[in-house]
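Practice set, problem 2.
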Amino acid sequence: MSTLELVTVALARQPQEKARVAAFLESHQLGMDEDVTHVVIALAQGGIAGCAGLAGNVIKGVAVDERWRGENLSARLLVEVENLAMSLGHFHLFLCTRPYHLERFRRCGFWPLAQCDDIAALLENTPSGIRRYCQQLGRLKQPGERIGAVVMNANPFTLGHRFLAEQAARESDWLHLFVVREEASFFPYRERLAMVRAGVAHLPNVTVHEGSAYLISRATFPGYFLKERGLVDKAWSGLDLQIFRRYIAPALGITQRFVGSEPFCPVTRAYNQAMHAWLERVPMSAAPVGVIEIPRLSHAAGEAISASEVRRLLRAQRFASIRERVPESTWTLLAQRYCAEVA
């Protein structure tokens, strides 16, 4: 075997390398997610022998040419990409892969969190990450027999979101509201979190939780190793809901999860269906969590209120229509952000 050289590529500064890495991954039946910012490449005689990508705190696109398998190259790539992540300020790392690769990544210092059938498995680079997170959640546990949960993106927070929170709070002794933490949305995470906090401030039995890596966003789910969109969605929902039922719900004593009905988006509608399966019916050691679907709040014209419609209206600068669909707290934030247009 020839000598290997490991190099780190920042794709924004070396865009020509992106196509080269993408072609290598494609030859191994893998895709390249758009959020990958850096790639560690193993070069042998000018060609790519292996690579490992990084998107924030998620390792993606780990592949080794078959001629180099058995040479411990995967481990070397993972060590290098972990060092890269730490240099960028990411210490808690995640990796998603096919279940038949689990043992390979275990040997490299990753611990399984959840597995969705034979489709996908999620791992993290610490044996205590999820335990520490649950301990933090446990300090916010509230007494009661009916402990509810809502998970929302709130992009932005609409009257529909407020209606869902109000209905869930009414049917719960205490409600835990989680805001998905990712920056792939139209509105930045901090703005969405502020909207939610302001929008439910009138509800005395609600705790608003900042999102975490254990609430998996569909927008940032590492589905590069799954070619079919249906499999990506199935893996995302299965892993996300297992983590919720196995870890998050017991930590807070959650007995029921509320969700709005979904008349528009087929992906969200499929997620709601998966919620019934994974939280209520699939056998596992954790207790079932009841799923309660709340019918969507409708606009005066009879249309269900949706965040996607508000974003469309915002792009069209139809501010009067937006104001009819969002609470005053959201409108205030929008007016501050788009003050010139609103004025």
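Problem 2, part (b): a different protein.
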Amino acid sequence: MLKHTVIKRGLATANPLIIKNSRIQASVILSRPPQITRDATPFEKAYFDYREKLERQEATTTPTDFYFKKGSVAERRWKHEEQARQNAMKDPSTSLSEALQASQVSWDKENEGLTVSTKLEKLERLTEADDKNNKKSLDRALQQTLYLVVKPSGDSSWQFPQGPIDTTEYLHEAAERTLSEQCGVDMDTWFVGRQPIGFYKETSQQSGLKVLKYKR
């Protein structure tokens, strides 16, 4: 005799949930993560320099005869940088990284044209959008996380994109539709998941507005 097991379908395979309360809305939290590492604080810089000097003090001497050909340009450059490091070890106000950077600059000036090398261009950490305070550009505040906020017509307050939920769609589908309607379909984004990451309810009892937020 065959036994049939009836398994109740979950929300992933069930028919779309019918939401009768039109005051329930779906919202999207769209973020751009930091593009570069943030600047170290003065305390972090002092700590890293202390650790670097401590490790250097306990390290063994580099065998230059093994790594460099005697009298070569590479050996002379290494000795130039090593002298800068030794001076920084004696001066608590100078970090090893600052001393090494200054040594490299002075070496390049004194030996310009001695070696042919491809110079790397160091980009600025502040962009043109930062200088112009262009808050609509993503090429700004590269050390911070940016969030998309919109201002609905007729409203003076900024908010995350949000809109009402249709009675024939899932919650995450309503969030996708809302983002497309308010910001366009050409945005290169994706949802982190199909479950809301937050819930917001207005304190006013008359409005009864409930907003489910999705991370994208």
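Answer key, part (b): The first strand starts at residue 24 and ends at 29. Residues 18-30+160-215 form one domain.
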